[in-house]
Design goal:
Blueprint (H helix, E strand, L loop, with lengths): L8 H92 L27 H4 L29 H10 L1
């Protein structure tokens, strides 16, 4: 055994006094924490009890709603069956009434005595110069010369094939 491993009593006693004071403080602090923890646990226990009470109430409401839903489902099925039965009984009467009040008009015959029911005139689909009985605005024979600077670029040259065919078509 070495000498430095043997504990000395004097140094230990000093440390024990210091450790004892620290341990007393720590013990008091832990007791305060224990009291605080007990308060927190009590508060959470109250909340848990409230939640359990609400859960029980919600389960009771769910059971009541489920029973009510089952009752309404049965009532709905009965009402649908009764409505189907009544429609079947009513169908011949509805058909007889529809036949008695039927409007019988031959196909393609329309009463046009009222002003709002007057037939419209057919739409005139012709070129405007024929519909309005006017000549064309630009005649190929009267077209300006192609080299004239005032001539639009879309006007064909008087000697071109297009102009010749237009002159023949216009004549």
């Amino acid at each position: 055994m070495s000498l430095h491993l043997i504990p000395r009593r004097n140094s230990k006693a000093r440390h024990r006094r210091a450790d004892r004071a620290e341990l007393q403080q720590e013990l008091q602090q832990l007791r305060r924490q224990l009291v605080g923890a007990a308060d927190v646990i009590a508060a959470q226990q109250r909340q848990l009890d409230e939640v359990r009470a609400h859960l029980a109430e919600a389960e009771q409401v769910a059971v009541c709603v489920s029973a009510d839903l089952e009752d309404r489902t049965v009532e709905h099925a009965e009402a649908v069956a009764e409505a189907t039965y009544l429609r079947a009984q009513l169908a011949p009467y509805l058909a007889a009434e529809a036949n008695a009040a039927a409007i019988t008009v031959p196909d393609a015959v329309r009463d046009t005595t009222a002003v709002e029911d007057q037939a419209t005139a057919p739409i005139d689909v012709r070129p405007l110069w024929l519909a309005l009985d006017v000549d064309r605005i630009v005649r190929v024979a009267d077209a300006p010369a192609a080299d004239d600077p005032r001539t639009p670029t879309w006007v064909p040259d008087p000697d071109s094939e297009t102009t010749q065919s237009l002159r023949v078509a216009a004549a």
